[in-house]
Amino acid sequence: MQRDVIIACDFKSAEDTFRFLDLFKDEERKPFLKIGMELFYAEGPSIVREIKRRGHKIFLDLKLHDIPNTVKKAMAVLSRLDVDMCNVHAAGTIEMMKAALEGLTRADGTRPLLIAVTQLTSTSEERMRSELLIDASINDTIVKYAQNTRDAGLDGVVCSPLEAGMVHEACGAGFLTVTPGVRFADGDVADQVRVTTPARAREIGSDFIVVGRPITAAEDPVAAYRRCVAEFVG
Ligand code: C5P
């Protein structure tokens, strides 16, 4: 799998999104984009179709988590939108992840990549213990959820770049790690805690880095994107 930089399009409207994307219209390399809940819920499937029409790959980050039958049917709808990557919560169990994969697979056998969220980075070990009654360490939980994801036949997980090595060790080098929490060495960390640089993420073995504000809030977003690509893809 070719390493790539995914820009998190955390915009509130289609207008803001297209104003941003217009900056890239002369770029030879069309950025791979992540669309999350805010933009998808605001604009609906039409935003996905329009961005695809402009030639971008899309990671639709909706983190599905429901009973297997509901997830299977929802995934069939997303698959028809022709996205390139989508995701579920591994906490939905192996059965739910298998159902997601089935729903996603088109009649001709093709499908978007499917990855799973292990533990959200906003969940602390303390809260896992006191609220979710999970006594294992957060790293053991991440490894177990990643193994469940692999056993269900999915392609990889979303995790911190600092966890990418651990996940590859447990699940194999071909199992994808898609990693947010990336900052330039001289950049602002903002609200992210466990961060690393694009170059370091590459060394640890991330397959895709998801980068939002270091690109979207940069004075020159195209230059920031190019810098990410140069550091991470080479
Ligand atoms: O702006 P920033 O680079 O922090 O954006 C990172 C993106 O990755 C955001 O869309 C955020 O919601 C997402 N994300 C994350 N940590 C996770 C899962 C997703 O930062 N564990």
TrEMBL record:
MF GO annotations: orotidine-5'-phosphate decarboxylase activity
For biological process, the GO terms are: 'de novo' pyrimidine nucleobase biosynthetic process; 'de novo' UMP biosynthetic process
* EC number per UniProt: 4.1.1.23
Query: Could you give one GO CC term from the UniProt record?
Result: cytosol
Indicate which residues the UniProt annotation says bind substrate: 10, 34, 61-70, 121, 183, 192, 212-213
Cleavable signal peptide: none
Q: Where is the active site?
A: 61, 63, 66
The answer to whether the entry has keyword Lyase is: yes
Q: Which domain of life is it from?
A: Bacteria
Q: Which InterPro entries match?
A: Aldolase_TIM (IPR013785), OMPdecase (IPR014732), OMPdecase_AS (IPR018089), OMPdecase_bac (IPR047596), OMPdeCOase_dom (IPR001754), RibuloseP-bd_barrel (IPR011060)
Q: Which UniProt keywords apply?
A: Decarboxylase, Lyase, Pyrimidine biosynthesis
Keyword Acetylation in record:
no
Pathway the protein acts in: Pyrimidine metabolism; UMP biosynthesis via de novo pathway; UMP from orotate: step 2/2
- Cite the CDD domains for this sequence: OMP_decarboxylase_like
User: Which reactions appear under catalytic activity for this entry?
Assistant: orotidine 5'-phosphate + H(+) = UMP + CO2
The UniProt entry's sequence similarity note says: Belongs to the OMP decarboxylase family. Type 1 subfamily.
- What quaternary structure, including any partners, is listed in this protein's UniProt entry? Homodimer.
Q: What role does this protein play?
A: Catalyzes the decarboxylation of orotidine 5'-monophosphate (OMP) to uridine 5'-monophosphate (UMP).
HAMAP family in the cross-refs: OMPdecase_type1_B
Question: Which named protein is this?
Answer: Orotidine 5'-phosphate decarboxylase
Source organism per UniProt: Alistipes timonensis JC136
